[in-house]
Write a structure and sequence with these properties.
The structure is a single chain. It contains three helices and 20 strands. The protein is mainly beta. The strands form three sheets. A 14-stranded antiparallel β-barrel has the order 1-3-4-5-6-7-8-12-13-14-15-16-17-20. A hairpin with a 5-residue loop joins β3 (104-114) and β4. The protein is elongated, with a radius of gyration of 23 Å.
């Protein structure tokens, strides 16, 4: 009866979770989230060689699901609160604007089942894997947020600045234990993503009202778009409590994003933008040779420079629309520690260092995507309520960081004496449950 209940609950949750959205901001590794679910988050995402729960194993290394000792279903919901401020200076004018991005819900569900042939393990995950959100009101004092000008020769800002990226991923997974020590895993990935932007500065502004001063349209009329890719992983258990793992996530190649927007006088306008999700390489090592302890370290590489939407920056020949965000390839390092304090209570902690994906000179092109936090700390715990059910919780803190660069004018370059600064911190609470059978 328990087995039937778990299977039914897992299928129901994997269907019902599609009504949620994900919007992560502030501490992502670029746009990619640091971890999925409260257990993986409390370990700072370090799971490439440390299969502790179904969600982290499926997400970061499909081969490691062979190392989970039980069949399990894991549920989680994270509530993320970013704290964002935008400062700018232009000539004698200067000001700041606080964002009102609000709490973002990030869902996680994962299921792992060992086949009767012990060498094969199946899994299915559905998580929010990437995103950001910024929501700055227009301002009359902060130069970067002043309304777009409709008068030739009169400078203007971007007005209200809103951006949102949500990426939900479905990951059917299979792992094969080649030997008692070596496993390989594969997972095709199907993604759903939605992008919103105000103004939509990745397209050419228009002058439909004939004023001689073109303005950007909004980019809020947007549906969910499909993307596809895959991931491969390898997991090896060595002597003396050492574990090794590696995985590669291919890019997620998305269909062209379409925006149903309007021109300056409200006429219909259809715009398209190409944006993909980057390739990610992960290497991990874990040590479990000390009774009750697991120590894990992951290193990751994110290939933004070869990803549509991120590889280039600057203004197009129209001297107004932007080529892309101009991100660099980045590295991150995560370490997590787990300690079984009692038979019922397990404690965890983690830390991540990650590089900022863009240089200060490109701050102006990233005021709507302020993904700049470098240091992230996490703590968490699991309580074994009974033989089958455990409750999980994690708190994650993204320490404040800021970047500053010049304001750049189309056709002329950086404006002397100008500056724009993004400041971001973030906080999250993640809760969930694991059912093992």
């Amino acid at each position: 009866m328990l087995r039937s209940f778990v299977r039914s609950a897992g299928l129901w949750a994997l269907s019902a979770i599609s009504v949620f959205t994900v919007a992560d901001s502030g501490w992502a590794q670029g746009i990619a989230v640091q971890g999925v679910g409260p257990v993986n988050r409390s370990m700072a995402g370090a799971s490439t060689a440390a299969p502790i729960d179904a969600a982290g194993a499926i997400h970061w290394n499909p081969a490691t699901i062979s190392g989970l000792p039980h069949n399990e279903v894991t549920f989680g919901l994270e509530l993320l609160l970013p704290d964002e401020t935008l400062f700018s200076t232009l000539g004698p004018a200067s000001g700041s604007t606080d964002a009102e991005s609000g709490v973002a819900p990030i869902p996680t569900v994962a299921w792992v089942q060992h086949a009767e042939d012990d060498r094969i393990t199946y899994g299915l995950g559905m998580f929010g894997v990437a995103g950001y959100r910024a929501n700055y009101p227009a301002s009359l004092t902060n130069p970067i947020s002043t309304p777009q000008s409709n008068t030739p020769g009169v400078p203007g800002g971007l007005g209200r600045i809103f951006s949102e990226l949500e990426v939900l991923q479905i990951v059917p997974t299979v792992s094969f234990a080649v030997t008692d020590r070596l496993s390989i895993g594969f997972a095709p990935t199907v993604s759903l993503a939605r992008i919103g932007a105000q103004p939509l500065f990745l397209v050419e502004p228009d002058d439909a009202d004939g004023s001689g001063q073109p303005r950007y349209p909004d980019g809020l009329g947007n549906r969910y778009h499909w993307g596809f890719g895959g991931q491969l992983g390898i997991y090896y258990i060595a002597d003396g409590g050492w574990h090794w793992g590696a995985s590669i996530k291919s890019p997620q190649w998305f269909e062209e994003f379409r925006f149903m927007t309007t021109d300056e006088i409200g006429g219909p306008r259809l715009e398209t933008v190409n944006i993909d999700y980057p390739m990610i390489l992960s290497l991990g090592v874990a040590y479990s040779g000390i009774e009750r302890w697991v120590i894990a370290v992951d290193a990751r590489y994110f290939d933004y420079k070869n990803t549509d939407g991120f590889r280039t920056t600057g203004f197009r020949p129209d001297f107004a629309s932007v080529l892309g965000l101009g991100w660099n390839n980045i590295f991150s390092v995560s370490t997590g520690v787990q300690y079984e304090y009692t038979e019922r209570l397990t404690l965890r902690g983690g830390y991540t260092y990650q590089q900022v994906p863009f240089s200060s000179s490109r701050t102006i092109f990233n005021v709507a995507s302020p993904l700049i936090i470098e240091h992230v700390a996490s703590v968490g715990a699991s309580y074994q309520w009974n033989r089958h059910v455990a409750f999980n919780v994690a708190y994650v803190h993204g320490f404040e960081n800021s970047v500053t660069g010049p304001i750049e004018q189309p056709g002329t370059g950086p404006i002397p004496g100008s500056s724009v600064t993004s400041r971001v911190a973030a906080y999250a609470l993640s809760v969930g449950a694991t059912v093992r059978y």
